[in-house]
Amino acid sequence: MNKIHYFLRLHSLSHRLPAHLLIYLSIDFSVIPLRGCSVDIHPNARWKQNGLTVAGGNGQGNGINQLSYPHGLYVDDDQTVYVADQSNRRIVEWKSGATSGQVVAGGNEEGSGDHQLSQPLDVIVDKER
């Protein structure tokens, strides 16, 4: 059995979806050879849906348990999630199972100083450092 992990950021096209919610999906799947048996899925099949909020989910804001327009993210080998929190101008680290994050870069107003970021859009972590 193989596993795929997805992180989705909801874009609010209506006023019903929050612009600060990050959703984690984990899908188990089996690899079937191209010339192997076919799998018939009944048209009325019901799928088990499991969603898990791994970062944010406490309304939009600048609290340590909130995000405001999260963009890029990175997941390390320990399932720690790093989020580029654009409007808060910071990178936030969310350890697996945590209910709040920890600011690891920025968060000190917009600017070009060593301790500042200007609307970060993506994040990558070098595990060697």
UniProtKB/TrEMBL annotation:
The record's region (Disordered) falls at 102-121
Q: Which UniProt keywords apply?
A: Repeat
Classification via Gene3D superfamilies:
TolB, C-terminal domain
Q: Which domain of life is it from?
A: Eukaryota
Ranges for the NHL repeats: 61-97
Has the keyword Repeat been applied to this entry? yes
User: Which Pfam family, any one, appears in the UniProt record?
Assistant: NHL
What InterPro entries would the database entry show? Answer: 6-blade_b-propeller_TolB-like, NHL_repeat
Q: Does the keyword Repeat apply?
A: yes
Query: Signal peptide position in this chain?
Result: none
What the entry lists under SUPFAM superfamilies is as follows: Calcium-dependent phosphotriesterase
The molecule here is called NHL repeat protein
- According to its UniProt entry, this protein's organism is Rotaria magnacalcarata
